[in-house]
Specification:
This protein has 65 residues and is mainly alpha-helical. The chain has helices at 9-16, 20-30, 38-45, 49-55. The two termini are 26 Å apart.
Length: 65
């Protein structure tokens, strides 16, 4: 799935056609509980920090790590 098209977890849930409880389990199996660093997110998504900022970050998260 092209991640740029999905801004909310609910959008992913809808695309997958799963119930909320199932989406919770999917998220737990795929994501780790510790906070993600920008560098890790960039590596996973295959973008640089500028692309991440432009495509996904809000004013509140733009300058955090």
């Amino acid at each position: 799935m092209p991640w740029q098209e999905y801004k909310r977890l609910a959008n992913v849930q809808e695309k997958l056609g799963v119930k909320l409880i199932d989406m919770v389990e999917i998220a737990k199996s795929v994501l780790h509980a510790e906070p993600y660093k920008k560098a890790e997110v960039c590596e996973i998504l295959g973008v640089n920090t500028e692309e991440l900022a432009t495509l996904s970050l809000s004013a509140n998260t733009l300058h955090g790590e």
